[in-house]
Each structure stands twice: as structure tokens, then as C-alpha cells.
Amino acid sequence: MTGARFDRTPAEQGLLAQGQAIAEAHPRPAGRPLDGAELRAIFRALAPTGYLASTLPREAGGQGLSAAEFCALCEGLAPGLTLIGNHSVQRYLQQFGDAAQRARFLPALLEGDGVGAIAMTEPQVGSDLERMTTTARRSGHGYVIDGEKTWVTHGLSATLIVLLAKTDHGLTRFLVPGDAPGVRRIAMEPVGLRHLGFARLAFDGCEVPAEWRLGGEGEGLRGAKAAFPIARVIAATQAVRIARAAVAIARDYAEGRSVARAPLAGSSLVQHGIAHLSARCEAVSLLCRRVADDLQAEDVVATASAAKALAGELALDACRWTEDLLGSTSLEAAHPLATLAGDARMMAVVDGTSVLNHLVVARRLLPVRGGAA
Q1: Does residue 318 contact residue 243 with C-beta atoms inside 8 Å?
Q2: Among 112-126, 128-142, 247-261, 357-371, which is the least confidently predicted range?
Q3: Model-level pTM?
Q4: Cα Rg of the chain (Å, integer)
Q5: Of 75, 148, 304, 342, which is most buried by a Cβ count within 10 Å?
Q6: What is the structure's pLDDT at 60?
Q7: Where are the alpha helices (DSSP H) in 294-335?
Q8: 168 is in which domain, residue-wise?
């Protein structure tokens, strides 16, 4: 893998600024998910940047963003609009959809008029997809889907769902319109990232035509692992932004507070904490950029996992340390740090927990048969 760059290209700087401007223009609501209209307004604002087509080649409508450029744009959106987007839906449509499917569903997603969602995780199943219980059985000229999915990002507002279900030939992807009969949405109450509209989706005799099957039967996991590195480095990049925001709150508090007539910012304990967290932010940020610069590297799965693990831990540590510094000041639900702390807890789990990602790194360093994915 190539060495890390210590500076951004002009294109990356511009995309970072665009992300920040969009996040500032569309502040997320406090304590509730973005509704469909709010989400589509954000997507329409993002469409010209290439964000919605980031996983597509130029000939399919993409704007040719490099991974590093896309990460810079994602960094600018955080922490306000962390993890917003439906890139995997576009990627699956482009890679595995036929011409009719792409023509029907892609334009709305790329223009920001549609909201995509991925429905894979099930209650009591987690990442062990072989234990999945959602089924798609053949019926006439299509399939009947029964089962339940959970932790579906944008599940409350999705106009198109990419669903993973079991057929007689194995795990298979399907395209399910959000308003299809037999689809029921149940709102979830996460500790953080509430703007993402997480939902449980229940499928009760949901009928879909055979032409909405995405790829062949038994090909539901095809291409899934290839997306792990970019997904993890994006999550890591945005987790670092959460950490930086927490450190900024700590710095502002210390500069405006006095204890025993002495400025809190002059305390060596406070100085050490802020300096240490800031240094960790810089180090993990450089690791993220190193991963994004060379997604084809032989060790990219391990380094992306390392970045995600370190960034998730950093976000938690920064929020906890700042909570200790602020004391009761930070305990009100409306305090910005409360939002960051909830988001940090979520980011520590999204795209693999620290334990899982450390195991991926260990498998690279100590190769044995089997191991984490």
C-alpha cells in the first residue's frame, strides 16, 4: 500500500467544502428522523456533487469521483448528516440489474427523487446470513416474500428496497418498491443517528414479479464483500469527524471556564486530554486517507478494518472524555454533545464492531483457516 498523503488535492478540498455547505444548509432535526421530503431535498442538493452516483462508472452516470474524493465529501457531511445516502442500492442495480431494471429505478435514485434502502439484517441473526429466515417462494410468475428485516437505514422513507431473502437455490436479492402491498414499516428508536430513519420492515405475503429479482437465484452475496473496504473507510472518516466535534466542544468549554479563578484551559490535565485526542484524530484521519488512496492494495481489507476499529473507539473516547470535562452540563438531551455521544455509540457498531474489525486485522497478521469477514 502506498504511503499516506499529508495534504488534500484541490478537488478533495472543494468536495469537503461542498459537503460542509450542504450539511449546514440542511441541519438535521433534533431527536427524530428526516422525513421523506427532507431526505429527498438533501439528496437533490447532493446530486450535482456526484455523491449519489459515487459507486457508478462514468458511462453509467457516475462523475468519476475517486475514493479519496468521495471520502472528502462524506467527511464534510459529518457529523450532521453522517451515513446519509443510498449508494449500495445504485451499485447493486448497476452491477447486477438488467437494462430494464436500471432504466426503471436508477434515474430517480441518481436525481435525488428516490430513496433506496438495503434490507439484509434480521432480528437474532446479525451478520450470520446463513441463518436468515426471510423467504421468497415461487408463485406463478413471481415470488411471495415473508419475513422481517431490522436496522434498515432510511427504512421509513425508502421508495426502493433491495431485499435479501432465501429461495430454493439460496440467498437472492430482490427489488421491492417501498409502497408494495405486504410491506409494513416499524419505526425504531436508536440511541444515535436518528436522522437516518431506521426501521424494521415486515414482509407479509409481499408479491414481486420475477423480473424484479436482482441477479440469479443463489447470487445474493455476490459482490458484497468487495464493498467492505470503502464502506468501512467512509464510516471511519465520519467517526473521526464526530471525535473532532467532541474535542471542539471540550476546547470551547475549557477556554470559557474558570476553576478557582484560574482558566480551565490552563490545566495541564485538560491540555493533555485535548492534545492527545487531537493527535489521535490526525493519525486515524491519515490512515483513512491512506486506505482511500489505494483500494486495490493487497492488504486493503485489513487496513480498512483497522481504520474503522480505531475511528469507532476514538469517537467513543472523545465523547466520554468531553462528558467528564463538562459534567452535568452535557447531560441534557438537547446538548450537542448528547447527540454526538449517541452517534458515536452507533458508529462503533456500524460496518463491524471494533472486536470484529480487530479480528480481520489479526487474520491478516496471523493467518489461520476461517475467521471474520
Answers
A1: yes
A2: 357-371
A3: 0.93
A4: 21
A5: 304
A6: 82
A7: 300-326
A8: 116-214
